[in-house]
Amino acid sequence: MGTYILRRLALIIPTLIGIMLLNFIIVQAAPGGPIEQLIAEMEGLGGNALARAGGGDMGGEVSAASGESRGARGLPPELLAEMEARYGFDKPAHERFLGMLKDYATFDFGDSFFRDRSVVELIIDKMPVSISLGLWSTLVIYLISIPLGIRKAVKDGSRFDVWSSSAIVVGYAIPGFLFAILLIVLFAGGSYFDWFPLRGLTSPDFDTLTWYQKVVDYFWHLALPVTANVIGGFATLTLLTKNSFLDEIGKQYVVTARAKGLDEKQVLYGHVFRNAMLIVIASLPGVLVSLFFTGSLLIEVIFSLDGLGLLGFEAALNRDYPVIFGTLYIFTLMGLLLKLISDITYVLVDPRIDFESREGA
């Protein structure tokens, strides 16, 4: 297992480089860029934007902006050259990419083009919100989905299975952001009840509260966002758990266990559970990455939660390339590590699995 882990860790490096290179090429081909946006701001705001263009070390690594569109603006060539040098666009694309990889190897992501802060500071500042939303959503999803999926497998075809499947399909069909709006209308002062707060992760007077009041306030603010985040995720995992258990229940070893006189709980949790949970465990990294960094984007926007999803969305709109590539690097690295952790968990759940022998076959 140790050799397999070392091999997988070594594969992370070329995988990261490949993903970064692919996105770098896409950004090169995309129209527009931070310099174009700054030029447009100059034309609209005059002196304020000119002062902004001349000050601050913005430090850029990526995207080439269109030279034709810049020249068409009629701005002094000296100013355009200064802006290109300040953003790092005066170098060839391959030099920018190699320099980016060198900096990213030491987790030096540079500074945001438009926020006057380092990318690392921005990520650290937004991380608690996304972790809170993603972690509690994942926990609730698994606490609901696994028992419900097992129950549905045991009661397959019963009235409980039919009506619960109907509720799951309806929940899956409703997008999380629409459900979030519905929750706001019903419970956050929209049209009916005003039971839950609408903005932020904590109340303005959070620092003055006692420790237990802080805990209550924290979960009070998370109640609606987590509920909206869970609605789609638990449906998929519940059906995955049910189908996995149904597949295992029909196998010969279960028939043999029952023939030996084992009761249904011993068969279900002593034999079936370990094998059926493998596919559920395998889905955990995807669930975590989705909830942490992508699935919660609209939820963060709707509930005014300033997390990583909102940060990445705003960076894409503003062509803030250091933030885009810095968050992409972090997300990809975490996804690859979570996948490796998933494989290790496979072995812990079922020691019969040997990844090294499979790779050598």
TrEMBL record:
Q: Which domain of life is it from?
A: Bacteria
The protein's matches in CDD domains, at most eight in alphabetical order, are given as:
TM_PBP2 (cd06261)
Q: Which UniProt keywords apply?
A: Cell inner membrane, Cell membrane, Membrane, Transmembrane, Transmembrane helix, Transport
Q: One biological process GO term for this chain?
A: microcin transport
Q: Does the keyword tRNA processing apply?
A: no
Q: Where is the ABC transmembrane type-1 domain?
A: 127-342
Keyword rRNA processing assigned: no
Its membrane topology is listed as: Multi-pass membrane protein
InterPro entries xrefs: MetI-like, MetI-like_sf
Q: Name one GO cellular component term.
A: plasma membrane
Q: Where in the cell?
A: Cell inner membrane; Cell membrane
Residue ranges annotated as transmembrane are 9-30, 129-150, 162-188, 218-241, 276-303, 323-349
- Principal location class: membrane
Pfam family, any one: BPD_transp_1
Briefly state the protein's biological role.
Answer: Probably part of a binding-protein-dependent transport system. Probably responsible for the translocation of the substrate across the membrane.
Q: Which family does it belong to?
A: Belongs to the binding-protein-dependent transport system permease family.
Recorded protein name is Inner membrane ABC transporter permease protein YejB
Organism the protein comes from: Marinobacter litoralis
Whichever gene encodes this chain, its name is yejB
